[in-house]
Amino acid sequence: MGILKPKEVGSGLLATALLWSLMLGWWLADGQNPTPAELLVDLGVLPLILIGGFFLLRGVVGQRLAPWPGPAPALPPAGSAGLAQAAFVGVCRQVVVPEGDLALNLLDAFVVAPEGRSGAALLSVISSGRGARLRRLEGAGGPPGVAEVEGLEVEAFAERLQSGVPAQEAWLASDELLRSLALLDAVLGDAVARLEGLAGASRLPVRCVCLVPAHWEAAHYQWLHGWLQRTYLAGFAPGRCELSLVPVADGPAALAYVDELCLALNREPGAGRLVLLASAVSALDRRILAGWAARHPGGQRPGECAAALLLTRAGRVPQLPVAEGAVAQIGRLVVSPRGGGAEADDQFPGRLGGVPPGGLVCDGAHLAAGGAAFPATLAHLDPRHDCLATGSVVGLAPPAGALVALACAASRVGAGPVLCLSIPHEHRWAALPVRPLAVASPAAPLRT
Question: Cα(47)–Cα(431) distance, rounded to whole angstroms?
Answer without folding.
Answer: 59
